[in-house]
Amino acid sequence: MISESLLPWYDKHARDLPWRLSPRQRCANPERQFTDPYHVWLSEIMLQQTTVVTVKSYYLKFLDLWPTVHELAAEELDKVLSAWAGLGYYARARNLHRCAKMISEDFGGVFPNNEEDLLVLPGVGPYTAAAISAIAFDEPSTVVDGNVERVIARFYALKDPLPGVKGQMKACAAKQTPAQRSGDYAQAMMDLGATICTPRSPACVICPIQENCKGRKGGIAADLPKKAPKKIKPTRRTYAYVFKDNKGRVLLRRRPDKGLLGGMTEVPTSGWLEGQDPLLDPTLEVLAEWDSFQGIVKHTFTHFHFEIVVRSAEFSQDVSRLAKELGASWHSEDDFGALALPTVMKKILRHAKLST
Ligand code: SF4
């Protein structure tokens, strides 16, 4: 079993992470044996699609603002979205808030301890449910993230490509999940993948499970897991319209709750057209004399690249009527920090010489 050599290694080498109660910390404080489920849930939602380095400061900021799930649940969604701005994948923040409300109002603030019940929570998929139940409750759940997939593919020398091989990986990972210290085992596998069994150059000579690793023995570890060829991402293009008034304020509006960047703050844009040049928005164009900034803003979302030409115009009259017509409101640069501005919108504002 992997756990026999991995857990002693983890006891010595576990990464210090702000959401983690490491074996060393538990030895120092025997009263605290498991991590608070709120902390595990919060960190795991943030870590979906985002690196540990980026998540650390956001996690600490959220705990500072909302130390308990009840406080997060009682907060306005816009404040949560604003604190989330920059982490990306904003549906996660909306689901985070919905989930906090459900835990606070329907579950009395207590997270369920098993995968089945955790899966009914908004934003909690199979991976997150397994991680919470293992790490916070020490249930023998099989936790398989990208790091664990890599370790398992190499340990068993699984040569079929992802994503087709995922089922086989999960079955192999389940066979290895120990009945005791399941939470530590899950975190140890993640740490092994992040620090030793790394994507490009696995450090097999210092690996605690090298003895039984088939990928190492076959000399193919660095080539695994294999991946099916990636689809080429399309490019969408648009014009962004930075309206300024004579006080230097900018017109911004809230995006619809559903869909990409739902509920976030945006600079008005024309349609986001795929595979062709952007088209000017006729309704916005007639409102002023516009100038385009040189160069384009580039951003990449999960499914497409995005290119934006930024246009700007200044208004001296009728600014309140204009805001009403566009469903928007005026904001000074000093306000930007408190708004739920996603990274792409910050890039647009910076391109228009505004500081965010
Ligand atoms: S021996 Fe090498 S390939 Fe195998 S699990 Fe360890 S680091 Fe990864």
From TrEMBL:
Q: Which terms are listed as keywords in the entry?
A: 4Fe-4S, DNA damage, DNA repair, Glycosidase, Hydrolase, Iron, Iron-sulfur, Metal-binding
Q: Which InterPro entries match?
A: A/G_AdeGlyc_MutY, DNA_glycosylase, Endonuclease-III-like_CS2, Endonuclease3_FeS-loop_motif, Endouclease-III_FeS-bd_BS, HhH-GPD_domain, HhH_base_excis_C, HhH_motif
SMART domains reported for this sequence:
ENDO3c (SM00478)
* Origin superkingdom: Bacteria
Quote the gene name from the UniProt entry: mutY
Q: What is this protein called?
A: Adenine DNA glycosylase
| Function, as annotated | Adenine glycosylase active on G-A mispairs. MutY also corrects error-prone DNA synthesis past GO lesions which are due to the oxidatively damaged form of guanine: 7,8-dihydro-8-oxoguanine (8-oxo-dGTP).
Q: Which reaction does it catalyse?
A: Hydrolyzes free adenine bases from 7,8-dihydro-8-oxoguanine:adenine mismatched double-stranded DNA, leaving an apurinic site
| Organism, scientific name | Kiloniella antarctica
Protease keyword on record: no
